[in-house]
Design brief:
The complex is a heterodimer of chains A (262) and B (173). Chain A is an alpha+beta fold and 262 residues long. Helix content of chain A is 42%, strand content 16%. With 173 residues, chain B is mostly helical. Classes of the chains: A alpha+beta (262), B mainly alpha (173).
Chain lengths: 262, 173
C-alpha cells in the first residue's frame, strides 16, 4: 500500500484528506507511532499558529477604524459631504479615462486630490501645457518620453535600474495594466540636481506618456515616499489598475512594446 | 449616487480585525499593516460595485489587500529592504497576559512564522488563522491546490521544528 506523504498527513490533521485515504490512514495509525507523531505535529502547528496570530493582533486602532468609517460614510452620501477643498495645482489626470463610472471615480479623485496636494508637484503629461515649471532632468513634461528613459521603460524588468547618459538613475518599480488594458509602468528617477521622482508612464499611440510624476525627495538619497507610494496606489486605484504584472507577464508585455504591438 | 451596496459598510468594519491581522502577517509590522488596511478599504469602497453578491466577502477583501501588498513589495525591491521585524518583536513583548512559558512558545512560533518565505506564510495564515479550506485558499491565491498543500506542509514543518515538536520533514514514501 502506498505510504502517506506529509501533505496527506497534514490534510488528515486538518480534516481535509479524501475519505478513502483517511480511512486507510486510520487503520494503520495505531500501529505507526511515527505517523501519529507527525499528524500530531501538524495539528499542533495549526493550533500554535492560530494562537500566535491571535496574540499579535492587537485591537484595531480607533483611528484606523474611524478613518474607514469616515470613508464609508463619504461613499454612502456622495461627494457633497467630503469637506475636501479642491486644490488648483492638481488636475484630475485620470478624468479622460473615467467615462463609464464617472460619479464614483470623481468622488475618488477629489479625495485623491487632497492627499496629493499635501506632498507634491504633479506633472502629468496630458494637461501640462503649464510652461514655466522646470522639468526635472530626464522627465519630459509634455507628451512622450524620449531617449534613455523611454528606452529603459521598454526594456528593463521591474526591479532593474540603469544609469542614463545624463547621469540620472532610472529604476523600474512595477508594471500593470489600467482599466482599459493599457500597459503602464511605475518607475523612479533620481537625478543629482532635481531629486527623486516617482512616476507612472503608459504606452499610448506608440510611445511612453507620463501620467503622473511625484516629487518624493530632494537631492539626497533618503527614501521617503510613504506618502508618494500611497498616492501612486490611489492613482492606480483610480485608473482601475489591476495588480502588478508578474515577471513573465511583464516580459511578454515588454516584448510586444519592442515589437510595436503592445 | 455612488452609494455602497446595503450592508457593505457594516461588513467591512466588522471584518477590520481579520483584515488587519492578515495585513500584519503579510508585512510583519503593525504600522505598515494599518496603512495597508486603510488603502485596501479605500480600494474596496471605490470598487464596491465589483463585489459579486454571494461570493466570499472575506476572500474578496483579502485579495484586494494582498494585491496592494504585492505592489508595495515590488516597489521595495527597487528601494531596498525595509526591516520591521524589530518593531514587531517589541510589540509582542508588551502583552501582559498569559504564563511566561506560553508566551515564549507563541513568541517562538511567531519568530518561525516571520522567517517563512512570503508565499508559505500567506498560505499558513489563510488556512490556520482565517480557516480557509485548501480549495478556497487556492482559489483566492490563484494557485493549484497541490501548491497550497505543499507550501502549507513546508511552513508547518518549519514551525514544528522551531517549537521543538517532532519535525515532520521527511516523506515516508
Amino acid at each position: 500500500m502506498a505510504e502517506f506523504t506529509d501533505e496527506e498527513l497534514m490534510a488528515f490533521a486538518d480534516g481535509e484528506l479524501e475519505p478513502a485515504r483517511a480511512d486507510a490512514l486510520r487503520v494503520v495509525l495505531p500501529t505507526r507511532p511515527d505517523l501519529a507523531r507527525r499528524v500530531d505535529a501538524f495539528a499542533t502547528s495549526r493550533r500554535v499558529v492560530s494562537e500566535a496570530a491571535a496574540e499579535i493582533a492587537t485591537p484595531v486602532p480607533a483611528a484606523l477604524r474611524a478613518r474607514v468609517e469616515e470613508m464609508i460614510a463619504r461613499a454612502g452620501t456622495g461627494p457633497a459631504e467630503t469637506g475636501i477643498v479642491p486644490v488648483d495645482n492638481v488636475v484630475p489626470f485620470a478624468e479622460r479615462r473615467v467615462a463609464p463610472s464617472r460619479p464614483r471615480r470623481l468622488t475618488w479623485m477629489t479625495a485623491l486630490a487632497a492627499s496629493v496636494a499635501a506632498v507634491l508637484a504633479v506633472l502629468a503629461g496630458y494637461w501640462t501645457g503649464v510652461s514655466g515649471t522646470a522639468a526635472p532632468q530626464g522627465i519630459v513634461m509634455a507628451g512622450a518620453l524620449k531617449g534613455g528613459v523611454a528606452d529603459g521603460l521598454s526594456r528593463l524588468a521591474s526591479g532593474e535600474r540603469q544609469r542614463l547618459d545624463d547621469g540620472a538613475d532610472l529604476a523600474l518599480v512595477a508594471s500593470f495594466r489600467d482599466g482599459g488594458g493599457v500597459l503602464c509602468r511605475e518607475y523612479e528617477m533620481t537625478a543629482a540636481d532635481s531629486g527623486r521622482y516617482l512616476a507612472v508612464a503608459c504606452w499610448r499611440d506608440g510611445g511612453w506618456m507620463t501620467e503622473l510624476a511625484l516629487h518624493t525627495a530632494q537631492g539626497d538619497d533618503q527614501y521617503v515616499p510613504a506618502s508618494g507610494t500611497a498616492t501612486v496606489d490611489a492613482f492606480l486605484g483610480a485608473v482601475g489598475a489591476e495588480a502588478a504584472l508578474q515577471p513573465d507577464e511583464e516580459s511578454k508585455a515588454l516584448q510586444s512594446v519592442v515589437a510595436g504591438r503592445p | 449616487m455612488s452609494e455602497l451596496p446595503p450592508g457593505f459598510g457594516d461588513r467591512l468594519v466588522a471584518f477590520l480585525p481579520n483584515l488587519r491581522r492578515y495585513a500584519i502577517t503579510l508585512c510583519r509590522s503593525a504600522d505598515r499593516a494599518d496603512d495597508l488596511v486603510q488603502l485596501a478599504c479605500e480600494r474596496a469602497i471605490a470598487n464596491a460595485a465589483s463585489f459579486e453578491p454571494g461570493s466570499r466577502f472575506d476572500a474578496w477583501l483579502f485579495r484586494i489587500l494582498r494585491n496592494l501588498w504585492i505592489d508595495q513589495l515590488r516597489r521595495q525591491k527597487t528601494a531596498g529592504p525595509a526591516d520591521d521585524i524589530a518593531d514587531h518583536e517589541a510589540n509582542l513583548g508588551t502583552d501582559p497576559r498569559g504564563a511566561v512559558e506560553a508566551r515564549m512558545m507563541l513568541s517562538a512560533a511567531w519568530q518561525g512564522i516571520e522567517r517563512l518565505p512570503d508565499e508559505q506564510r500567506e498560505v499558513l495564515m489563510l488556512v490556520c488563522v482565517e480557516e480557509f479550506s485548501y480549495r478556497d485558499a487556492a482559489e483566492m491565491l490563484g494557485i493549484p491546490i497541490g501548491t497550497v498543500m505543499s507550501r502549507l506542509a513546508r511552513a508547518r514543518s518549519a514551525i514544528a521544528s522551531q517549537l521543538g515538536i517532532e519535525s515532520p520533514t521527511k516523506r515516508s514514501g
